[in-house]
Design brief:
The chain is mainly alpha-helical and 685 residues long. Among the domains are: 113-180 and 191-223 and 233-253; 265-327 and 377-409, no CATH class. It has 26 helices and two strands. The longest helix is centred in the middle third of the chain and has 50 residues, at 360-409.
């Protein structure tokens, strides 16, 4: 049997120098590899390594407990990510066609109809308003939620939001003004309730400030789109909200911003419902102002607005000053001990049988408490009255400053309102300014006469300028208002006792009125007001529209009423009736009888009634005018003389009485008989 050949081992060749050096270098590489392997983070590399297959999304939904007690786990709905591109594709800017396909496949937000949005907004507003009405201090963040709903572009939602905020703020606004907390104030240790109230006040102030800013923005936007659209606009709702807040909470913060909204609307000469609403609100604010600060702020803003507009405003804006309560609290008759007031607020005393029994100590304690309360009330009243008097003084300065600037500029459509205001507040004007004011009134009468002459000259030339627009001046009414104001300056104060020292002479106004009696008696609009029954020409555009003047005193007074006021101030002055000279009384009596022949029946009745009062007071001085056998004057009577006393009235008789006895109106005939009876009684005394 042949033996298996043995396996021969391969002998390694002897190492050379090159092989030894390569072995040493491989050992160094292996050693460095092992030293670096210690710093490797294999777990992190494995975690970040991309995995194959679909990744199951982790369920983040809470389990549900069923009625039988079993717990059911709810899994999130599966989402197919197969059609979506990977992050690498977005980074590398993949194919545009594929990205468009992905955008098309994404779900779009459905378009909600407008009526559904309005219904949802109503429900949301109702929920938030209910929370604020129930627990306002616990839902301070709801004010911002209300404002957020109003950011919609739908006008109906904006109006609903403004009205809802108005109702909410009227209910939650406190009865005091919230003072801002200083940032550099030292930190205080506050209780939990105080901290909760302060947090609510801060949220209320921030929300209310944002609401007032929204009202201002909407009101300003409405000026450029006046009369556009149907129904009530957002600007009208904003103005209505501002007016309501100013009337309901005039003591609260940001009152000046609300007044700015109203003054901005009044600066426009376009008369509409919003304009009249602002007028009524400011009138109410002036009448119900007990502090004086709201009136001062409103008058300051009104005067600045009129100055910026160069007094190109409507007459009713200036007439707002007639409703101010300027130093008029103590208008009742009073003495050192008591004050006669129209309304007595004293509570009636209880009879002894119904009084509660109190011990002597209790009665003494109650008496001390009442005395202490009375002293505290008097101290508070003195302080508040002094502060209010200071504020009303500043308001009065602003009012008179506006009046005097308008007088200086001679704004035609504002002269009536200014003169009426001066006659009302004449008792508050300093006597040192009487001379300058009377000179201004005289210049105004001269200017009105010159303008009347110019108007007559233009009428004679023709109607070439018939298409010009502008305010129509009435010089006769301006002259009568100036005369009334001049005599009201003396009647309002004790200036009549110092006429010699002040060098006040009213003969200019008396002479002017005497000279204008005849022209006024021939005026066909004698019994009409400034705008009553004066319908505008439909073919003639006018840049000065008329407003409802039911509350304006100036526009309601007819020329006859103004004339009666002037004649009463001249012939029957309240300070000293007996000081009127006989020549003046006789001259005016003769002129009144002559003028009554040309006047309408109502004006004639008014003149005869005034003449009856004059006859009963000065009957002995003018009785000779009704008796032809007792003529005191020589010469000839001149009814057109330049002076009152120079007309020589006692050289004539009142022959007009015989004609007036045969007047067609029975009341005029009765007025003549009353004049004769008054003369008979005066001569018998």
């Amino acid at each position: 049997m042949a033996s298996r050949p043995t396996k021969k081992r391969k002998l390694t060749p002897p190492q050379s120098d090159d092989e030894g050096s390569s072995r040493k270098s491989s050992a160094k590489i292996q050693k460095s590899f092992l030293s670096n392997a210690a710093n490797w983070d294999l777990e992190q590399d494995y975690e970040t390594k991309a995995r194959k297959g679909k990744k199951e999304k982790e369920s983040t939904r809470l389990p549900l407990k069923l009625q039988d007690g079993r717990v059911q786990h709810v899994s999130a709905p599966a989402v197919d990510f197969g059609s979506l591109e990977s992050d690498d594709d977005w980074l590398e800017g993949g194919d545009e066609s594929e990205s468009e396909e992905v955008r098309v496949k994404q779900p779009e937000k459905p378009d909600i109809p407008e009526h559904q949005q309005i219904r949802e907004a109503k429900e949301e507003l109702a929920k938030i308003a209910l929370l604020l009405n129930e627990t306002p201090e616990e839902n301070g963040g709801a004010f911002k939620a209300l404002a957020r709903i109003g950011q919609s572009r739908i006008p109906a939602i904006q109006k609903l939001t403004l009205a809802t905020q108005l109702a909410v703020y009227k209910d939650v606004i406190p009865g005091y003004r919230i003072r801002p907390v200083a940032e550099d104030a030292p930190e205080e240790k506050l209780s939990k309730d105080v901290r909760r109230v302060r947090t609510f006040e801060n949220s209320l102030i921030s929300g209310y400030q944002a609401y007032v800013k929204d009202l201002t923005r909407h009101a300003k936007a409405g000026r450029h789109h006046a009369g556009v659209g149907k129904g009530q606009s957002v600007a009208s709702v904003a103005i209505m909200c501002a007016c309501t807040l100013l009337t309901a909470v005039p003591h609260f913060n940001f009152r000046g911003d609300l007044i700015k909204i109203l003054v901005g609307k009044l600066s426009n000469r376009h008369i509409d419902d919003d304009f009249n609403k602002c007028l009524q609100t400011l009138e109410t604010l002036f009448k119900e102002d007990e502090d004086g600060s709201p009136s001062m702020e409103a008058v300051s803003l009104l005067s600045k607005m009129m100055r910026a507009k160069e007094y190109d405003v409507h007459e009713s804006v200036v007439n707002l000053f007639l409703h101010l309560r300027l130093l008029s609290e103590f208008s009742h008759k009073a003495s050192k001990d008591s004050v006669d007031r129209s309304d007595s607020t004293a509570a009636p005393k209880k009879p002894k049988s119904k009084r509660d029994f109190r011990t002597k100590r209790e009665r003494k304690h109650i008496k001390e408490q009442k005395s202490l309360q009375k002293d505290m009330a008097q101290a508070d009243a003195v302080v508040s009255y002094e502060e209010r008097e200071r504020k009303e003084g500043e308001t009065l300065k602003l009012v008179f400053g506006t009046y005097f600037r308008i007088l200086k500029l001679r704004v035609p459509n504002l002269m009536g309102a200014v003169l009426e205001g001066l006659s009302k507040y004449a008792h508050l004007i300093n006597q040192n300014f009487f001379g300058d004011l009377l000179e201004a009134l005289k210049d105004l009468i001269r200017h009105s006469e010159a303008s009347e002459d110019d108007a007559e000259g233009e009428d004679e030339k023709g109607d070439d300028d018939a298409d010009e627009t502008g305010p129509v001046r009435n010089p006769s009414r301006e002259a009568l208002l100036c005369t009334t104001t001049a005599f009201a300056l003396l009647a309002g104060q004790d200036a009549h006792n110092a006429r010699a020292d002040l060098h006040l002479d009213l003969s200019f106004f008396t002479t002017h009125l005497y000279q204008t009696l005849f022209p006024l008696s021939l005026n066909p609009d004698l019994e009409l007001g400034a705008r009553s029954l004066h319908l505008p020409d439909p073919d003639k555009p006018s840049t000065y529209p008329t407003a409802t003047t039911a509350r304006n005193k100036v526009n309601l007074q007819t020329t006859t009423v103004l004339l009666i006021r002037c004649l009463t101030a001249i012939l029957l002055p309240s300070w000293n009736i007996r000081s009127v000279p006989p020549l003046r009384i006789a001259a005016f009596a003769k002129q009144l009888c002559t003028s009554s022949l040309h006047m309408p029946e109502k004006s004639a009745q008014a003149m005869l009634a005034l003449l009856s009062d004059v006859a009963s007071t000065h009957g002995r001085k003018i009785g000779a005018l009704w008796n032809t056998e007792e003529r005191k004057g020589d010469g000839r009577f001149n009814p057109l003389s330049e002076g009152v006393e120079a007309s020589n009235p006692f050289a004539t008789t009142v022959w007009e009485g015989e004609i007036l006895r045969r007047h067609y109106c029975p009341k005029v005939r009765e007025g003549v008989r009353l004049v004769e009876k008054s003369l008979a009684r005066a001569t018998e005394r």
